[in-house]
Amino acid sequence: MPRRTGLLKVEIVEAQDLRNADSGKKGDYSDPFCRANCNISDDGVQQTRCIQDNLNPVWNDTVVFELNGPLSEGVLEVWILDKDRFSDDDLGRVLIPMDNFRAKPQRDEWYELTLDNGNKKGRVHLKIAFKA
């Protein structure tokens, strides 16, 4: 069994200026939710609730990962999707290397989102706390 190396708490606060993946007609805007995963945790993908028709959603949801690998190999992935009936559309993602979390274990930052095509659109506000 892997040895626990720390705990990562991620508060997914809000996002701004998201891409509209819906029609935009009569108030039909993206229905965003956020997923988070950490490659050095066995906790799997965790997600926020969905906010209907909003390109600037506020979640204030928290996810927690029990870490069981070296921070030097860790990456926190946060991506935002548009909830649809049959398939969810990509609204952007951010990859955060964890190798310097020991030096700066508390973060309250905005991260620029990258779309699947490589373009930048929108940003997400995360509060991250690492505890060894």
* Number of DSSP helical runs: 0
Q: SSE order in H/E notation?
A: EEEEEEEE
Largest sheet, in brief, is: 4 strands, antiparallel
Structure summary, number of beta strands: 8
Mean of pLDDT: 93
**Overall geometry:** elongated
Q: N- to C-terminal separation?
A: 18 Å
Instruction: Report Rg.
Output: 15 Å
Q: What oligomeric state is this?
A: single chain
User: Per DSSP, what share of the residues sits in E-state strands of 2 or more residues?
Assistant: over 45%
Give the helix proportion (percent range).
under 10%
The strands making up the biggest β-sheet line up spatially as 4-1-8-7
Q: Which class do the helix and strand fractions yield? A: mainly beta
Chain-wise SSE layout:
Elements (H helix, E strand, L loop, with lengths): L5 E11 L15 E7 L7 E2 L10 E10 L7 E8 L6 E9 L8 E9 L5 E12 L1
Antiparallel strand pairs: 1-4, 1-8, 2-3, 2-5, 5-6, 7-8
